[in-house]
Amino acid sequence: MRVLFTLQPMFGHFHAMVPLALALKDHGHEVAFATGESFGPVVEHVGFRHFTCGRDCEDNRHMLEELPEWPSIEEKVDNPGVRQLWGFILGFAPQMLDDLIDLIGEWQPDLIVRDPSEFASTVAAELFDLPYASIHWALYISTWGCDEPLNALRRRCGLPDDPDFASFDRYFILNALPPSWELHPDRPRVIHRFCMPPFDQSVSGSLPAWVGSLPDQPTIYATLGTAFNRQPGHFRALIDAFSAEAFNAIITVGKSTDPARFNPLPENVKVERYIPQTLILPTCDVIIFHGGFNSLHSAIWHGLPMVITPQGGGDQRPAADQCDKLGLGVIVEGDPPEPGAINRAVRTVLEQPSYRQRVGQFRSEMMALPDLSEAVRRLENLARTREPQI
């Protein structure tokens, strides 16, 4: 079976897809990724074939605002989350669709797996009568409010308008979060949950030598992910929050920021560009993050209580609110947040055992889910029958 993964050229989107791609590869299937040209080395570093498709972009929080189409989108759409989806559809999907039509005709995949912000593949799949699957993040991304740009995309390749979008996400959706995490009671009936290990080593990264010599005191890890990390004021607030505390604070600032800009540092604070969370989180007691899916997934996987400082991503605020509602963590507002508020939130989740206990319950639910070999079996069945996996 040939499986084509389609995605925006962004690390967070890629990392969420790799575990399934590796499972398919382990079962003998041929797997390739279709995304922007500059992301090819990242895909190939992990061991997959790359096809150049779609528009390139710089992976940062302002990538949509930098689109030529953005001013007209702002005029038309009031809802911030829907506005971001319009950006992905109008800014990235047209070229992606044109490239996918050529690629599918030549490579002839049996199945497509898409990142939930990549919409061109849903149209290309219908054009070629191919089934497709979607990866689910913390928030299910539907077509609500996107009729106009999606129908324009369909008309681009000669498909009629679909007023009810009956063809959208009709086959199979994969979810990595446990059953207690549910933001959409009326979610599609084709969502299935699987135990997917986190992945975060698409670039070189290792555990610093100093980790083994940290003092015997609580260790806090802080990150703003891969797209929302160009915020020196936010990182300075994190440093100030722990400058006089009996905590080990580990902060990663991203590939584009030089940690030296924050020198001199308090003795108990370490700042690095990047440390894979799969390596650092087993040594930690609390995670501070922005509400992104991969960090949320990793936090639950490692059983860590959370402090969430949501940024501008459309799924971050709902994820933060859900963590607060379910007792998994505490929200800290502000951009940047106040150091005192960060400090109090960390003390809350450290000193109140209910947070760690609740995350532990979620972790147990996650580990009890079917493993990815069952997801592969479902995808094989989907490719064979081309019927929705209810």
Summarize the structure in short.
Helices cover 39% and strands 14% of the residues. The chain has 390 residues and is an alpha/beta fold.
Give structural notes.
The protein is α/β, with parallel strands linked by helices and 390 residues long. The chain folds into 2 domains: 2-195 and 369-385, Glycogen Phosphorylase B (Rossmann fold, 3-Layer(aba) Sandwich), CATH 3.40.50.2000; 209-367, Glycogen Phosphorylase B (Rossmann fold). Helix content is 39%, strand content 14%. The chain has helices at 11-26, 40-45, 70-76, 80-107, 120-127, 147-156, 232-241, 277-280, 293-301, 316-326, 339-351, 353-367, 372-385; strands at residues 2-6, 30-35, 49-52, 111-114, 132-136, 172-175, 191-193, 219-223, 248-252, 269-272, 286-289, 306-308, 329-331. It has a 7-stranded parallel sheet, with helices on both faces. Strand 12 (306-308), helix 10 and strand 13 (329-331) form a beta-alpha-beta unit. The protein is globular, with a radius of gyration of 21 Å.
Unreliable stretches covering 5 or more consecutive residues: none
Q: What name does CATH use for the topology of the largest domain?
A: Rossmann fold
Secondary-structure-based class equals alpha/beta
Gyration radius over CA: 21 Å
Reported CATH architecture of the largest domain: 3-Layer(aba) Sandwich
Q: What's the N-to-C terminus distance?
A: 21 Å
Which percent band covers the strand fraction? 5-15%
* Helix count, DSSP H or I runs of 4 or more residues: 13
Mean of pLDDT: 93
